[in-house]
């Protein structure tokens, strides 16, 4: 008889351990987009927007005309090459492995953070150079070795960001199984 999945199993199904370049800024100002806290990442933010729009176009046109959808996928690959070149300079520092899901992430750092602290995050995935900008709230801060394990919950994440992150997680899970 098959074991029924628990809520914890379901949470783990959409969680991966991933190598990222993580940049976090403590902030109280969530009125402006999270990317505005990282002006040095403006080009990556633009490429993330291109990716998001490209996925929307592919979905829309793909249902109408397969050859045009194929052309958009090729264009998307060209943008990926450009993104890789731009992201390479931002992923050489502050790299670490994090536990990430569509709802939040856990990472290690040297200093403790008070619960409910608001962070602006720039998360660049090393493997794909996809950059996610988001706000998160600290929901856990546990001593770990000589540092701290910080658990964060994403705040008001746009549906499109959640979909991009979900696709990235599913893709990473497929790669790890093959």
What this model shows, in words?
Helix 2 runs antiparallel to helix 3 (66-88). The protein has a single domain, classed as predicted glycosyltransferase like domains (Thrombin, subunit H, Beta Barrel), CATH 2.40.10.220. The protein is globular. Residues 1-7 have low confidence and may be disordered. With 178 residues, the chain is α+β, with helices and mostly antiparallel strands. The chain is built from four helices and six strands, in the order H-E-H-H-E-E-E-E-E-H.
Strand order of the largest sheet: 1-2-3-6-5-4
Proportion of residues in helical segments = 25-40%
- Architecture per CATH nomenclature, i.e. the level-2 architecture: Beta Barrel
Beta-strand share of residues: 25-35%
Mean pLDDT: 79
Number of domains: 1
Mind telling me the CATH superfamily name? predicted glycosyltransferase like domains
